[in-house]
Amino acid sequence: MSRLGDTLKEWVEEFVQDMRRRGLSDRSQVCYRYDLLMFVKWVEEQPNVKQAGDLTQTTLENYQVYLMLRPSLRGRRSTPRTMSAGSRNRHLAELKSFFRFLKRASKLLGNPCSELEGVREPRRLPKAIFSVPEMARLLAAIPKDRPSGLRDWAALELLYGCGIRRKELVELNLTDLRLGEELIHILGKGNRERVVPIGKAACQALEAYLKQGRPVLARGTHRRVFVSSMHGGPVSHAALLASIREHAQAAGIKKAISYHQFRHTCATHMLRGGADLRSIQTLLGHAHLNTTAIYTRVEVSDLRKTLKECHPRETHRPPSP
Fold first, then answer.
1. Residue of 3, 189, 255, 308 marked catalytic
2. Which value, to the nearest 10 degrees, does the dihedral of the CA atoms of residues 140, 236, 24, 224 take?
3. Is 122 helix (H, G, I), strand (E, B) or coil?
4. Backbone angles phi and psi of 138, in degrees to 5
């Protein structure tokens, strides 16, 4: 094992400790450590990279080429896919943060990543969203006569009503709710805070859950809003999603169910209802408007329907020859 490899591993641990001091999530710490140690392993295999001074921009560019050619670890295909542009950009962002830390801590004189640029990512449309009738069926299928059903009802009304993220939902505390004002306080990505309105349907569901559901389920003194029906502590995102999937199955909904799907559904339904992008951006907590703008890319099915309903050649049959 090379001395540089040992040194880099020590620096990675110091960097992760710095992340912990800055309040980054455990999940972020695990992901950064894993990806950075993959970089360290690559460095150890390079015969011309023996000391810290060899970590140049050219070296980092070679690592980017390695990532581009490296097969993805996801999936079991006879011909493995290469790593996506998004994953390579994530690795680069992690390296930039790591080397900024090393420079700030006087481990290195410069940052070899500072001039590197990420690759252009293809803009993808959100996964298939739910229709308004599907959402109505799903909400109606949740049993309101038991505590766990009241919990799932309240969670789904928030997911659909204000596009809250998975982490934002499961980490919501009782003190974040201002139901009298129909507002909730959300701590989002990058510790960015926002206060957003919630509709009357979400307020009704939350009030029912807090009065009749949570007191039955909760154990201990924790302040999380959403509680496990198994142990009474904070519910895990996996357990909550599994419960929502059961309700979707009961409602006859065949689509794949994910937290982000409800977020996409919320944004798309609001846009179709006439909401402007700035309002949707604020509601969802997007740092940049171009993230929200993806919802303006109309699906082909919507475009076909509009063509048939609006184009003169579709609405009026041409005269027979």
1. 189
2. 70
3. coil
4. -65, -45
- The single residue of 260, 272, 304, 305 carrying the catalytic annotation is 260
Given a cut of 50, is residue 299 above it in pLDDT?
Answer: no
pLDDT tens digits, residue range 60-101? 888 888 888 876 655 444 455 677 777 888 888 899 999 999
Query: How high is the mean pLDDT of the chain?
Result: 84
Q: Is residue 295 annotated as a catalytic residue, yes or no?
A: yes
Strand order across the beta sheet in which 177-178 lies: 177-178, 183-187, 193-197
The per-type count for the chain, helices as H runs and strands as E runs, is 15, 3
Active site residue 124: no
pTM, rounded to two decimals: 0.61
Q: Is 17 exposed, middle or buried (0-12, 13-18, 19+ CB in 10 A)?
A: exposed
Tell me whether residue 91 is one of the annotated catalytic residues.
no
| 254 is known as an active-site residue | no
Residue 234's identity, in one-letter code, is: P
Which among 165, 224, 247, 269 is annotated as catalytic? Answer: 165
Q: How far is CA 247 from CA 44, 77, 144, 166, 173, in A?
A: 50, 32, 12, 18, 25
At residue 257, what are phi and psi to the nearest 5 degrees? -115, 125
pLDDT band at 199 (very low <50, low <70, confident <90, very high): confident
**Separation of alpha carbons 231 and 255, rounded Å:** 30
| Catalytic entry in 63, 160, 209, 295 | 295
- Tokens linked to 21: 């001091």
Q: For the chain, what's the residue count?
A: 321
Q: Of the residues 88, 91, 247, 263, which is catalytic? A: 263
At 234, list the tokens.
């904070």
Q: How far apart are CA 196 and CA 304, in angstroms?
A: 35
